[in-house]
Amino acid sequence: MKKEEDSDPGASRHGNFINYYKFHPAEERVRQLPRGVWQLKRQQRKYTVLDVGCNAG
Q1: Count of structural domains, the chain
Q2: What's the pLDDT score for residue 1?
Q3: pTM here?
Q4: Which residues contact 19 (CB under 8 A, 6 or more apart)?
Q5: CB atoms < 10 A from the CB of 33, how many?
Q6: Which residues span the domain enclosing 44?
Q7: How far is it, in rounded angstroms, from Cα 16 to Cα 30?
């Protein structure tokens, strides 16, 4: 049985590409950030990141 997220409706739903993250791994996008962005000012702080795309390529 196919999962809903694996089905291909033939177009983007609500601007979201089906299985986008299977084709564009997070590691590849993270490599595009400047090296120093992950250096913490204080050791006990953590970063929270929102990955927002423009849906234009």
Answers
A1: 1
A2: 56
A3: 0.42
A4: 5, 6
A5: 10
A6: 15-57
A7: 20
